[in-house]
Amino acid sequence: MRIFTKKLPHPDLPAEEKAQLLQNSEYQERMVESTFLYLTLDLPTAPLYKDEKEQLIIPQVPLFSILAKFNGSTEKEYKTYKENFLKRFQLTRLPPYLIFCIKRFTKNNFFVEKNPTIVNFPITNVDLREYLSEEVQATHSHTTYDLIANIVHDGKPSEGSYRIHVLHHGTGKWYELQDLQVTDILPQMITLSEAYIQIWKRREEDETNQQGA
């Protein structure tokens, strides 16, 4: 992927000093190309309100909303101890298998917090062509992915448990695994879970969809 980074002046500086610093080369946007093992998808902050019946509302977000991080134009601010940066990302190559890590856990000095937001995603036919830079789109004939594995975290950050949804490629059926228990699961039930890590397989031209989802 390409990573574009722009250093930001300290927010407490006067406007004139900020404008002057932005003219320096140190504050100009720079680009580096980097390989990746997986893509980290950031969840929006979960709302802390209840509905009229005092029931907690489970927030939801579409997969393509959090994938927008890699469209080459969406900027996000990153803070370090001393400096702040704006970064944007753009994919330049798509691998046969793609791993998404949905960032549910955040750490502070005292404890770990978990974001319960549900990600709405299709099981099949996720096209990532628009996240490639324009000049490399023509070189990628296959940009569509199907989900083949989904790791779920249930419960509190320190006390929770994991479940795994796996596609049996030969039959197109989905199974849920937890410890030694293996059960059938409907594809539409997978999308209701608190997905944490997902593995997607690129669909080749001669492949047919056997999942029926």
From TrEMBL:
Listed GO MF terms: cysteine-type deubiquitinase activity
Encoding gene, per UniProt annotation: Usp39_1
Keyword Cell cycle listed: no
Keywords linked to the UniProt accession: Hydrolase
Reaction catalyzed: Thiol-dependent hydrolysis of ester, thioester, amide, peptide and isopeptide bonds formed by the C-terminal Gly of ubiquitin (a 76-residue protein attached to proteins as an intracellular targeting signal)
Stretches assigned to the USP domain: 1-203
Alphabetized PROSITE patterns for the sequence: USP_3 (PS50235)
Name of the protein described by the UniProt record: ubiquitinyl hydrolase 1
Organism annotation: Sitta europaea
Signal peptide from the UniProt entry: none
Top-tier EC class: hydrolase
The EC number(s) this enzyme carries: 3.4.19.12
